[in-house]
Amino acid sequence: MKQGISVIFRLIGLLMILSVSSAGFCAQLILSEEERAWLHDHGQELRLGVAIVPPYMLVNGPAGELRGLSWDYIKELEQRLGIRFNPVLASSYGEMIRQVRAGETDLVYGATSTPERRQFLTFTTPYGRLETHIFVREDHKGSASMETLAGHQVGVVQGTALHEFIRNNHPDILIRSYPDSSQSFLQLSAGEVDAVVTSVSTAFAYTQRNGLHRIRMEGPVGLNYEMSFGVRKEIPHLTSILQKALTAIPEAEKDLIAQRWFMPRDPGKVDKAMVLRYLAYAGVVIGVLALVWLTWSVRSMRREVSQRRDAEGRLAFLAYHDEITGVLNRSGFMHQLTAPNEGGRWQLIFVLGLDQFRAKNEIWGQRIGNEILRRVAERLQASLGTQGVVARIGGDEFGVMLKQLNTLPELMIKQLLKEIASPLLLGDGSVQLVTATVGASLIEDHADLDARPEQPLERAELALKYAKRHQRGSAAFYDASMSGNESRDQHWKEALTLAIRRHQLFLEYQPQLCLRRSKVIGFEALVRWQHPDQGRISPAEFIPWAERFGLISALGDWVLQTACRQAAEWRKQKLPFDYVAVNVSVRQFVEAGFADRVLMILEQTGLPPRNLELEITETLFMGDLETVRVTLDKLSGHGIRFSIDDFGTGFSSLMYLRQLPVETIKLAQEFVLDMATDASNYQIVRGATHLGHSLGMGVIAEGVETAEVQQALRELNCDMVQGYYYSRPVPASDITPQLLESLAQRAGHRQEEVV
Predict the structure, then answer these.
(1) Same domain, 109 and 164
(2) Are residue 303 and residue 399 in the same domain, yes or no?
(3) Number of domains comprising the chain
(4) 563 and 607 Cβ atoms separated by less than 8 Å
(5) Cα 683 to Cα 669: distance, rounded to the nearest angstrom
């Protein structure tokens, strides 16, 4: 008993010390004359945007009083600054952001700084950090990561930083927007979405409130919430004032606020008032009850203190460190970049991105991928020693800061890339080869760093994108032209994303004919883009953009579904044809679940598998041949045809031609166009045709534009043809029985008949 009472008095003493400490810090709040004047004129009319998002902000009881972590900070600011915030309640978090953007409020709470929000808001330093994770149902098969959720429906609260992060960094994820996390978790429980992404504390609050227990937490999202006050750019004084007031709040007071809303609590703690009432009514047993209550309370308090200490340590570590590698995370990296230090100013910052890591991670598995990340982090730390800071700032990206440059930065980075590329011996005994690309930025003007600390990192990331676009495995240093390139890239990425969603894309079809039977046997589906301002944009331009921006899978799936739907419609119309041919990119083909998506599209559109041909390129076979073989076998087993597009321009191997279920090779048009007048091209077409026939494959020549070329192909026994001599690509509405008949007649013409 004495020990329990001692613990209670020590806690009371600690609270008194914290109270005195808090008062001391309050005295150090110093505002400039200009800030005091502004506060005097505007301090009672500040409009604060408020949305009910537990545990940041809640409504207490029928009276509608506000409470929550952010509300505690707001009351602290009001007390220290002598001002009053006028809450403007929004129906959702997204609506709160819209209101401040429209100037209907002056500031918002609990806002994470993002590129989009920085266009209309300025931010204080964060007053809290929350870890975000993926949440799935317990019956979800396998583990869930941002990569494995590609093509799946994911619930996100509209208008949040997570919504913007996923939209910009994971365009393959199908976002389902909800006004609050409560609805998103209800939809997850009902099976309407495959996953929900939100903060751990928010998930706990809503699942407990709705009684949803069959929910489990999976991997991190890649962006943690950093809760700041966001102030309209038109009010710069307010940001500075709030920043100073936040700084004046003692750390002990901040810890108490965090414990109040985030730390675990003992739900079974005895109500003291009730105990006293029972003691009053039962005087005979008062001593026994008092002893039981005191003993139980001390144990409960010890347990709660232990739980809080563990949770505090966990939250403190995760706030600044990466869970997988143990090095700093992006928040910790930025904290180090802006923190005062005695070892001199930062001289160089660079971002190292692992090449093709996402695709390799799908092949190797997440366990191997995580071990590779840990080993790369270890190599970086060992190479840099105490002269640099290492952080994992993205899925496959590491950030590095250096204070002293003992050699030319180009030579240092080159040596570092060489070390990263040396073989990695993993714990399972396997050896993996990893390469990396670097984007770097020299910090020459530290005034810019003080004014906008995130700028050097943004410049290094721009340089990394530039290096990956031009030569993977190399290093690029930032220059001003890269910002212009990034702006253009972002413009076209957004334009192409909208084009896919708003049906600015459409298909045209080019007939393919059998020379021997003189009839149309198929149609190649070709995607077109009619931009509302730029007019028609060539596929030669926007398909490389789709590859670069990570939109090629979404584009490819749209083309496949549209072509299959049209082919099914032609079958209903009794139009005579054998198949519709659709081009498939390498990235689309090797994605997990590609075969299942193709079969699902065929089932949805009602097109028999035998009426679909997928055109693939030779570069597909330069990767993991076994994975490719599994997908080819699965689809061909259902009757889907395959052809190799642009045969002869890439990596050709008789081995894969013999082993894989490919029915047709398609000769590249650069060889076919002038084969009637160019002897070398004629021999190439002749040899490729003979090779295809010897392997039991059909041969189709594209790019036929003259009767002479048709005659030469007929003499070489080429099976099929395609080109402007017969028809340009045309809309589906122009494909009629009359058109097919006229094309068949042209394919049946002999050269002497058309001369």
Answers:
(1) no
(2) no
(3) 5
(4) no
(5) 14
Helix (H) or strand (E) holding 173: none
For residue range 563-597, what is the model confidence (pLDDT) as tens digits? Answer: 999 999 999 999 999 999 999 987 788 777 889 99
* Contact between 467 and 475 (Cβ < 8 Å): yes
Give all strands (DSSP E) within 481-594, no chain letters: 505-514, 519-531, 535-537, 579-583
Specify whether the CB–CB gap between 392 and 325 falls below 8 A.
yes
Cβ 263 vs Cβ 308: under 8 Å: yes
Reported as type and span, the H/E element at residue 60 is strand 58-60
| 261-271 residue pLDDT tens | 764 443 333 33
pLDDT tens figures, 252-288: 888 788 777 764 443 333 334 444 444 455 565 676 6
What pLDDT score does 638 carry?
92
Banded model confidence at residue 212, pLDDT cuts 50, 70, 90: low
pLDDT tens-digit readout, 457-491 = 888 888 888 888 777 788 888 887 776 555 566 66
- The residue among 479, 514, 534 that closes a domain is 479
CA distance 631 to 637: 10
Nearest to 436 by CA among 418, 463, 458: 418
Indicate if 637 and 527 belong to the same structural domain: yes
Give CA–CA dist 643/656, Å, rounded: 13
Residues 653 and 700 in one domain: yes
Whether 426 contacts 432, CB under 8 Å = yes
List the one residue out of 194, 225, 244, 243 whose CA is nearest residue 55. Answer: 225
* Both tokens assigned to 365: 């598995």
The order of strands in the sheet holding 215-220 is 174-178, 153-157, 195-199, 132-137, 215-220
Structural domain span for residue 63: 2-127+227-262
